[in-house]
């Protein structure tokens, strides 16, 4: 089973590539406080359809470049932007 992540698109400046920020909540081992941890993944977007602010699902794949190992599976929610 391939790994999947849900996150927010923070950059779409590269051709056929998006940067997705995935947020998770972890419990601090000593202080027992919940902390937000964020990580950025570069993902392949063949049709350049995802835009900044969209909530997307990405799936792990073979290495496509030095940092790109994920591809866009679907757009869950589109960001309503300026016209």
From TrEMBL:
Name the domain of life: Bacteria
Q: Spell out the GO cellular component terms annotated for this protein, sorted alphabetically and separated by semicolons.
A: cytosolic small ribosomal subunit
Q: Which InterPro entries match?
A: NA-bd_OB-fold (IPR012340), Ribosomal_uS17 (IPR000266), Ribosomal_uS17_bact/chlr (IPR019984), Ribosomal_uS17_CS (IPR019979)
Q: Which GO terms describe its biological process?
A: translation
What molecular function terms (GO) are annotated for this protein?
Answer: rRNA binding; structural constituent of ribosome
Question: What UniProt keywords apply to this chain's record, in alphabetical order?
Answer: Ribonucleoprotein, Ribosomal protein, RNA-binding, rRNA-binding
Please name the Gene3D superfamilies in this protein's record.
Answer: Nucleic acid-binding proteins
Is the keyword Transit peptide in the record? Answer: no
Known CDD domains for this protein? Answer: Ribosomal_uS17
Quaternary structure and partners: Part of the 30S ribosomal subunit.
| Record-linked NCBIfam families | PRK05610.1, uS17_bact
Protein family per UniProt: Belongs to the universal ribosomal protein uS17 family.
Q: What does this protein do?
A: One of the primary rRNA binding proteins, it binds specifically to the 5'-end of 16S ribosomal RNA.
Put simply, this protein is called: Small ribosomal subunit protein uS17
- Organism per entry: candidate division WOR-3 bacterium
């Amino acid at each position: 089973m391939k790994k999947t992540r849900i996150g927010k698109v923070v950059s779409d400046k590269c051709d056929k590539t998006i940067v997705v920020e995935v947020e998770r909540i972890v419990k601090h081992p000593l202080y027992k406080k919940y902390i937000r941890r964020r990580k950025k993944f570069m993902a392949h977007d063949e049709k350049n359809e995802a835009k900044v602010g969209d909530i997307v699902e990405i799936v792990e794949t073979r290495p496509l470049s030095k940092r790109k190992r994920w591809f866009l599976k679907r757009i869950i929610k589109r960001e309503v932007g300026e016209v």
